[in-house]
Design brief:
- Helix 3 links the parallel strand 6 and strand 7 (121-125).
- Helix content is 36%, strand content 18%.
- By secondary structure, it is an alpha/beta fold.
- Helix 2 packs parallel to helix 8 and helix 13 crosses helix 16 (435-452).
- The chain folds into two domains: 11-91 and 211-478, TIM Barrel (Alpha-Beta Barrel); 100-199, CBS-domain.
- The chain has helices spanning 56-65, 77-90, 107-117, 137-142, 150-153, 169-178, 199-207, 231-241, 256-268, 282-290, 308-312, 318-332, 347-355, 365-368, 394-407, 435-452, 458-464, 472-478, and strands at 14-16, 33-34, 40-41, 45-47, 68-71, 100-102, 121-125, 131-136, 155-156, 183-187, 193-198, 222-225, 245-249, 273-279, 295-298, 338-341, 360-363, 378-380, 383-389, 426-430, 467-469.
- The chain has 18 helices and 21 strands.
- Bound molecules: xanthosine-5'-monophosphate (XMP).
- Residues 48, 50, 278, 299, 301, 303-306, 308, 341-344, 362-366, 390-393, 423-424 line the site of xanthosine-5'-monophosphate.
């Protein structure tokens, strides 16, 4: 047994000492950072892999703003893969697998397909999957009663403007504009359909210049996986669907089975970007780094909905956890980034986490109240709220067991609710509007923080950082005080 002589510190225990600043404008700083050794982001913010935080709508909004969302894993492999597909199809210069319908289908079938897929047009193909024509929403809507078949309503192949696979975004924009069309089928040298460029695809990148994009112009997205053996199949399916990064997501990541799983993932998918965690100690971070992680996720119990520290007695206040983990990574000899996961309540907490050595922060509850999180708002006492739940809460644990039973028929099916020992709670948070508005405030705080820190970028903030431990009186002085808020 040993007792560490120093206290564990968290965000509210410290302040950063202001530095002489060469920064004259908040716009003159660089908020870009490393998510992993192989992926950069324009803002250092990640939405958490929680089932009340990140599904496709959140991941799309996060990537458009320059961050990234990590899709939760509390569903079947097929459901999670579908979420990856939605993000990957949301934006990209070219849709490589456009939705298509047979030239022999009925208009009623086409209408149903467009409604269920939420698309405004379908490529029409013949029996050999060659381009036969194109059918738009407009064709379907205005076709008279007597027209029953796709082949009668579509624009025929001979009347379509098409292009080859080597077309650039600028050339596509010109073709779309000059011909006043919205869709451009892409054909290879044999005339086989290989993709589709839409006017939306050309416009989107101009609307979101900060977006986190892969090499094909699609939005980046991460996906969480668990530690059990069968999760290798999940990993494979997610990577196949185009997930940019996997997050090996375990409450106690400094564990033999986590390190073994990381090893298997590295062997099976040597090119994949893999984040591993969670840890909160020098040795935890060092061993995951040595086992081949491309980034380390740090945080045991700092989250707003976490009760791990209460239930188990274990945890490390988050600022100390980040400082210790940064030391662990240094000792491993590998230059890999740290993600500070949990406990971010305000922009200043994020600035402190970054200054302490993290390169990104992961956020749960603060985003759970936004429009893009799963579920609808509820009204209580005339105010709008959304639900957030810890992934180790009673409800989430039981939900997960249900999902596992769905995937694995042989799994036990007599689990009693009272046999669960929850390490998280279910709660409500105020509705906060679009996540882009919350991000604007967070990133605005970071920009100001960089200026106070005399730093052009996050690395400079870390180099210049001097933390000062403060007293309860200092904490009180830091918030608004002795006024009545309006
Ligand atoms: P915030 O504070 O941003 O934290 O809401 C989000 C992080 O909390 C972790 N998490 C949990 N931790 N029990 C825990 O001890 C739980 O049930 C639980 N659910 C989520 C997770 O790391 C998340 O990113």
């Amino acid at each position: 047994m040993k007792i560490r002589p120093t206290k564990g510190l968290t965000f509210d225990d410290v302040l950063l000492v202001p530095r002489r600043s060469p920064i004259s404008s908040r716009q003159a700083v660089d908020t870009s950072t490393r998510l992993t050794t192989g992926i950069r982001l324009n803002i250092p913010v990640i939405s958490a892999n929680m089932d009340t935080v990140t599904e496709a709508p959140m991941a799309i909004a996060m990537a458009r703003a320059g961050g990234i969302g990590i899709l939760h894993r509390f569903n079947t492999i097929e459901q999670q893969v579908r979420q990856v597909n939605k993000v990957k199809r949301a934006q990209g210069f070219m849709v490589e697998t456009p939705y298509f319908i047979s030239v022999d289908a009925t208009l009623a079938e086409a209408r149903r397909m467009m409604d269920s897929l939420h698309v405004g047009g379908l490529i029409v193909v013949d029996g050999d999957r060659n381009l036969a024509g194109m059918l738009t929403n407009r064709d379907v809507q205005i076709a008279p009663e007597s027209i029953k078949w796709v082949r009668e309503a579509m624009t025929e192949r001979s009347k379509l403007v098409t292009a080859g696979p080597a077309i650039t975004p600028e050339e596509a924009q010109e073709l779309l504009y000059n011909n006043r069309i919205e869709k451009l089928p892409i054909l290879d040298a044999n005339g086989t359909l290989v993709g589709l460029v839409t006017a939306r695809d050309v416009i989107k990148p101009l609307k979101f210049p900060q977006a986190a994009q892969d090499e094909r112009g699609r939005l980046r997205v991460g996906a969480a996986i668990g530690v059990k053996d069968r999760e290798m199949a999940r990993a494979e399916a997610l990577l196949e669907a185009g997930a940019d990064v996997l997050v090996l997501d375990i409450a106690h990541g400094h564990a033999d089975h986590c390190i073994a799983m990381l090893g298997s993932l590295r062997r099976h998918f040597p090119q994949a970007q893999i984040i591993a965690g969670n840890v909160a100690s020098v040795d935890g971070a060092r061993e995951l780094a040595e086992a081949g992680a491309d980034a380390i996720k740090v945080g045991i119990g700092p989250g707003s909905i976490c009760t791990t520290r209460i239930v188990t007695g274990f945890g490390v206040p988050q600022l100390t956890a980040i400082l210790d983990s940064a030391e662990g990574v240094r000792l491993s000899g590998r230059d890999i980034p740290i993600i500070a996961d949990g406990g971010i309540k305000v922009a200043g907490d994020m600035v402190k986490a970054l200054a302490a050595g993290a390169e990104t922060v992961m956020i749960g509850s603060l985003f759970a109240g936004t429009e893009e999180s799963p579920g609808s708002p509820v009204i209580r006492d005339g105010q709008k709220f959304k639900v957030v739940r810890g992934m180790a809460s009673l409800g989430a644990t039981m939900g997960r067991r249900e999902a596992e039973r769905g995937e694995d028929e042989s799994a036990e099916d007599s689990e009693d609710w009272d046999k669960v020992v929850p390490e998280g709670v279910e709660a409500v948070v105020p509705y906060r509007g679009y996540v882009s508005e919350v991000l604007y405030q967070l990133v605005g705080g970071l920009r100001s923080g960089l200026s106070y820190g005399g730093a052009h970028d996050i690395k400079g903030l870390q180099d210049n950082a001097e933390f000062l431990e403060i007293t309860p009186a200092g904490v009180r002085e830091s918030g608004s005080h002795d006024v009545r808020k309006i």
